[in-house]
């Protein structure tokens, strides 16, 4: 006869899986039931523990222990009581035996007499039937879940009432739960990845239909005889807390503590698709490691860990776990919902990439694993082979991608638009959908917006697609109102969409043909005004605060690029206190990285407005911060790029001061790390831009140090990278702006060396690019000044070959461009140069 568990072991039932061996023992042992009742009663009485916990960490919401104690089991003594013996005839069904019990009720094996088939019947506990509104919603929700036709979701056949029981029948999956599947024999790695991929696909299907599970865990996943997973009880957890006023107390906290997301524990944030993404990560974690992300004897301790601790890395537990699967798992388990994958579909796609041997998106691209052994045997030779292969492969892959790109983008745009249209219609059609479904519709839009911004933000060649998608989102948002969805959510989506359009129109232009500051200024101001109003009503909302700070910072960056340094610096300093406060609320690397970026921009502002001491303070602070983040998060490409930018800015400062040794130190650090990233990311255009800029700066240093040969070598390398960029993103005018500097530097140096035949085409190309840019951004001082510079270089080439008429025409163009700028802006920035140009033109008449 099996002995009863200890009291401490019994309490594990509260924080763990209630359908396992321990739960079955308690179901059949009156003594253990009484002991567990006593412990739960004690836990309710100890709910005052929350106040001391509040003094330790702000993450614990007020009343957490009260909600926890109430949610674990309402009246354990009554809920498992049934007034019939098995087998039992219940209308069309014969109940044969108990399969299991959970938080809502009991699951029976039954025979459906009319169809002569075995089914599972879930009987809902009596305590859930006291609220008529909840019962009504039970029917509505189960019917909506019953409409989900997906191979990865256990279908619901029928919902009904028998005497004082609610029940529903569903497909019988006789192999048991995923929890039992794991305990029987740890599945192979690829089987694990495939199972979770299938679960993620099913979750995504449900999300597309407006249903969130909110209690994903191995015991809620059934496994058939072919090892295919099927999600059970889909949508029921969402039902049980749609409205706190409907709760009996049993589901104020929905979920099992070990598998709950931080937002479920805190009760401070709405539960979105991200909650289920976290659940997918928890399932993957347990399948890989054999245990849940957080375990413990005391439920309060487990919930505290969910909020405050990072789960132990799977590879620390088992070194044989592939790094890609660890990365996918930990991204799903990020504390902040915004830092997880935006959709369950993204999780499925990542796992599919792993299974196919392709690169995943969530971490820096590694050197190909298949070369790992070769590199270990002969590292030097292997790296040379790899670098050669990558260089040769660039043109082949770029050519292939250019053929496929438009088709792929068109399909993606069409897919996103269908999802958006469905979401908007769902939000508007409140006559047939409850308010919660309207809320889910705006969450769909938020998720799609997040995917657009995450996927396309830093890819120059993708900006056209990004612009089309953002305009689609804006169009859908225009059709919604506060009558349909939460006004704060609507305004947040609106502001983020406008901010995204500001960024993309700065790069590729607005509908009126303008680019740069002229194209984006109105968008930035609109987005900032909306975010400021939103922030006034949500000052504790970290996401709103960060978005506002970044919007102000990005607008400042646009002003800086136009050489409006006083205005730009004012914006940087306006964003600074917001970002510092955000860091006081969160110490995550992403938030600290944004502060580091802002500190470098503030330093750049101080450099251009004449405050050397403040420049050194802010540049050193930002540089150190970004360096630390690259060391603690070596997989963050964004952190690495910002660190490179800090090296560039500090190097520029030292070069300006003629501190050649110091400038060399920072520029070489910039170049070495950029080239290393280029070896890891051979097709990343932003990394290529960093490499081009690094060699350009080394060329500037060599030229100022009178080392002409070295300057020529560096400028040529800079142009090599720039021309790859020009091929990969020919429509991205902001990228072409950076490319033009490589043409300019080499053209100037070749003119100095009298290498006219080699330098002339470079000067012509530079003018072609800058004419386009200046024509579409005429009030931008830098665009105008740099066009004039390149025109003067081209005129000098003509003069060197005695082509005086051509040179005069170019000087005349310079005069016209500068005059127009002064008329448009009212600024006399080119007054002295106009006088010099008049003299040159007169001399050539």
- The CATH class label of the domain at 175-246 and 256-361 is Mainly Alpha
- Strand sequence of the main sheet, in spatial order? 1-2-3-4-6-5
Low-confidence stretches: 14-19, 43-80, 239-254, 364-409, 430-440
Percent of residues in helices: 55-70%
- End-to-end separation in angstroms reads 113 Å
What CATH calls the topology of the domain at 175-246 and 256-361 is Transferase(Phosphotransferase), domain 1
CATH architecture of the domain at 175-246 and 256-361: Orthogonal Bundle
The CATH homologous superfamily of the domain at 175-246 and 256-361 is termed Transferase(Phosphotransferase) domain 1
Question: Quick gist of this model?
Answer:
The protein has 845 residues and is mainly α. It contains 35 helices and eight strands.
Q: How would you explain this protein's 3D organization?
A:
Among the domains are: 7-73, no CATH class; 85-172, Phosphorylase Kinase, domain 1 (2-Layer Sandwich); 175-246 and 256-361, Transferase(Phosphotransferase) domain 1 (Transferase(Phosphotransferase), domain 1); 425-586, Serine Threonine Protein Phosphatase 5, Tetratricopeptide repeat (Alpha Horseshoe). The longest helix has 50 residues, at 379-428. The termini are far apart. With 845 residues, the chain is mostly helical. One of its GO terms (molecular function) is ATP binding. ATP binds at residue 122.
